[in-house]
Amino acid sequence: MEALSQKTDAELAVLVQGKNEQAFGVLMNRYLPKLLRYGRKFLAADAPIEDVVQEVFIRVYQNIKSFDTTRPFSPWIYRIAHNLFANALRYDSRRPFITVDLDTLSAHTAYEIDPAESEEREEAKRLVDRGLDALTSAYREVIILYYLEHLSYQEIAEVLHVPIGTVGIRLHRAREALKKYVEGT
Amino acid sequence: MLKEPNIQEKILEKIHDGVPMHSRAYFLSRAALVGAAALIMLAGALFALSFLFFSVHESGVGYLLEFGEHGIGAFVALFPWTSLLIFIACVVVLEMLVRRFDFSYRFPLLRIFLWLLILGIVGSTIIGFTPLHASLLSAADKDELPILGSWYEQVHDSHVEQGVYRGDITAITATYFVISHNDTDRDSDEGTWSIVPPLGFSTSTLTIGEKVYVAGQIKNNIVYAYGVRLVTDRK
């Protein structure tokens, strides 16, 4: 088990593809806290988050052979989580999930955050804690993935299946909305 | 640090209870099915749009645009909208299928839609250079095209009710000419009509046996045309 814990996600995924249950256990150890946190931030407080996360891991096990081991594992598992969380939101009228997304229609210039803007990143993190619930699901999710789960633009694009420019524009708009909300309270 | 051993146990329990791990063949066959459906939709889109181009040219509906205001109204009424709708529906379904492939999300929806539209137009234009639709029409005229036959037969309809006539010239005088249409299988659009051409149109430019396309108003079995156009056959 100790040797397994030294392996990368992709190496573990290869072992899980060969039905190695211990390797699957290590992957669960790594991603369970992250996915629970993602779910708690993304879904309503009284949503059956643990059930949905359980379902995520069941899907991971079922579909592990569709995972391309030459690619990073984290966007792949977050993609499954995103789909199931989005389904859970569709059944929750208090937090409607937008299925027709105008941001994905046309191309956007990617607003990559400059490393020099790390102060802004810290500030945004503080804003997130105060105003996340005020955002729509599309903006809330991109904020969670970037600031709390520390995924890159490219990885977020892979999770949400949107162009990278759309990730940038959503983050930009979400930060603006957060600022406005916090200033107004 | 969060630790949720209960969840892990529940997950493993469910897996032991018989959650199957899908094989690679399962995913490959699913991708192949989506790919095949996408190809069928692409073929449908190309067929519908190339038929639309063929139909507008072959039926003479395109000539109506040369007949002024009345002609434009008749063009809108006779345009093969069904083919256009089928083309758009195929492109929309095709886009949905293409988006199931991982590479597609990198591009905005509108760009993919435009690419598919351009692909459809270019592909249909290329099909237009082949004898596909002409040979299908010929088979339909001979009653040898059971499924698409009625679709193709409409290409040569006269649309008398919309004031549009087509036929072969059978007689010419200084002030009018006579056309006759007989496609042997559809009585409703067959007939013989005397055509009074619009002002400035000389019947001396016509020859017996030529095919013409005429738009006008009928009174006492005489068509007072606002547009006359010779039909050029596709080679």
Give the overall average pLDDT of chain B.
87
Number of domains of chain A: 2
Uncertain regions spanning at least 5 consecutive residues of chain A: none
User: What is the N-to-C succession of helices and strands of chain A?
Assistant: HHHHHHHHH
* Assembly level: heterodimer
Polypeptide structure, described:
- The complex is a heterodimer of chains A (185) and B (235).
- With 185 residues, chain A is mainly α.
- Chain A has two domains: 2-90, Rna Polymerase Sigma Factor, Chain: A; 102-184, Arc Repressor Mutant, subunit A (Orthogonal Bundle), CATH 1.10.10.10.
- Chain A is 66% helix and 0% strand.
- Chain A has nine helices and no strands.
- In chain A, helix 6 (118-131) crosses helix 7, helix 6 (118-131) packs across helix 9 and helix 8 crosses helix 9 (164-184).
- The relative contact order of chain A is 0.12.
- Chain B has two domains: 26-152, no CATH class; 158-230, OB fold (Dihydrolipoamide Acetyltransferase, E2P) (Beta Barrel), CATH 2.40.50.140.
- Chain B has 235 residues and is of the alpha+beta class.
- In chain B, strand 4 and strand 5 form a beta hairpin.
- The mean pLDDT of chain B is 87.
- In chain B, helix 2 packs across helix 5 (109-128) and helix 4 (81-98) crosses helix 5.
- Helix content of chain B is 48%, strand content 16%.
- The longest helix of chain B is centred in the N-terminal third of the chain and has 36 residues, at 24-59.
- Chain B is elongated, with a radius of gyration of 27 Å.
- Chains A and B meet through helix 3, helix 4, helix 8 and helix 9 of A and helix 1, helix 2 and helix 5 of B.
